Structure prediction request, 256 residues.
Amino acid sequence: MNGNPHCFRLDGETALITGGGTGLGLGMARCLARAGAKVVLVGRREAELKRAMASIGPSAAFVPHDITQLKRAGELISESERAAGAPISILVNNAGIHLKKTATETSPEDFQSVLTTHVCAAQALTAAVLPGMLVRGHGHILFTASMASFIGIPLIIGYAAAKSAYLGMVRSLAAEVSGRGVRVNAIAPGWIESPMLRQALDGDPARSNKILSRTPMGRFGEAEDIGNAAVFLSSSAAKFITGAVLPVDGGASIGF
Prediction:
C-alpha cells in the first residue's frame, strides 16, 4: 500500500495557540505554520505577539487576550477566526504559569491561580471551539502536559496538579468526541530550553544536574522538538491517534 507523501502537511488547517508569543507556544506555532497551517497567536502582551508574528510571516495573526477571563472564551474563538479568515481546526492549550514554592508556602490563592490559567482556561476554550469542530466533523485539540504529569517533582504542587489534570481531560474528551471527527491528545515535554525553564532552574545548578542525570539523552530539548510533535499529532499521519499523551523528553520519564 502506497503511503500519502503529504500526510504530515497541515495545508487548510487553522491553529490557535495560547501562550503563542514565546517559548514552547512560539516553537509550536512556527512548526505548524511551516507545515502549511495558518496560526493565531494568543497572549497577554501585544508587543511580544507582534514580534512573534513577524518572525513567522504572513500565515500568522495574533489576538491579545487574557485566557483567565473565562467568560470571554467564545469571544476569543470568534476574534481568532476573524483574524485568520477561517474556522479554528486546531486548538493548542499551551498557556501556563510557573509557581515554585513549598507546599506550605503555596496559598489557596496561589494554587487557584495556577489551576485557573492551566485547567479552567483550557476547559473554557475547548468548550467554546468544540461546537464548530463537531459541526464540521473535523478538529484536533492538543494540550501541553508535562513531566509533572508523570513523576513527582518537589516545589511545584500547583503546577503538578494542573498538568496531571490535563491527562484526565484528554482521555475524557477523546472518549466523548473522537467518534465525531475531533481528536484530542497531549504532548508531555521534558525539560526544554525556554524562558519558563530558565525561571525554574537559574540559580539552582543542583536541580539542573539532577534533571540531566536522569535524562538518558543527557541534554535539554528545543522548542522545535515540541513543535514537530505538534505537527505530527495534528496531521493526518496521526488520524488514528486520540486520547494519547506523547512524552517528548529525551527519555526523562523513563530514566533513572
Strands lie at 14-18, 38-43, 60-64, 90-93, 139-144, 182-189, 245-248. The mean pLDDT is 95. The first helix runs from residue 23 to 34.
